[in-house]
Amino acid sequence: MCNRYTPPDWVEIEREWHIGARNQPAWPLEIFPRAPGPFIRRARDDAGYSRELVVGQWGLIPWFAKESKLKYPTNNARSEELANKASYKDPWKRGQRCIIPAATFDEPNWETGKNIWWRFARADGAPWGLAGLWNIWTDKATGEQHESYTMLTLNADAHPLMNRMHKPDPKVGPDEQDKRSVVPIERGDVDQWLEGTVKEATELLRLAPVEVFAAGPMVPPANLVE
């Protein structure tokens, strides 16, 4: 699961995804759950196909929520549960998929017995385009609309790099840890992800090969709460 990432700036988003990022609220230099962040989706007001950039809460607010501040985390969604889990099945079925731009993302490594934060960039220097779902929730009391999104993950137990992340669960064996990884969408697959069918989108739910990553312990160590 990812709980911290760094988004690119406006210029890099425009250059990488050919989309204007202006006239949107600013976002933080580092994004944590429930903070505002940018995401790219199929434009809602275009009868054809184009992309738009939106700023919303990192933590999807489902339609049945009674308030925008949820008491449970929805910043990550297991891809294996999208079709059935109440929070995500409607956005998944409706094709409310998005790209989450990330310059880097961080994961905890516990191989030494304590948390050492690792930072993950792309080896080619480009930003990540991470798979996500978005939703719009309307406050029934005020009529205010809230944009939000979640970051998709896949089981990474067999991945030689991502299976090294996160604290092991002592209650289960080494083959039952359910280590997780984000899901990168490559540049040439963006349109398939945003406008394709559910079947076509499902084909893109795969882990990135090790050579795509430029990863290692953060130096100096992060002065942030683990």
UniProtKB/TrEMBL annotation:
Its EC number is 3.4.-.-. Keywords: Covalent protein-DNA linkage, DNA damage, DNA-binding, Hydrolase, Lyase, Protease. Gene3D superfamilies: SOS response associated peptidase-like. It comes from the Bacteria. It holds the Pfam family SRAP. InterPro entries: SRAP (IPR003738), SRAP-like (IPR036590). Belongs to the SOS response-associated peptidase family. This is Abasic site processing protein. It comes from Variovorax rhizosphaerae.
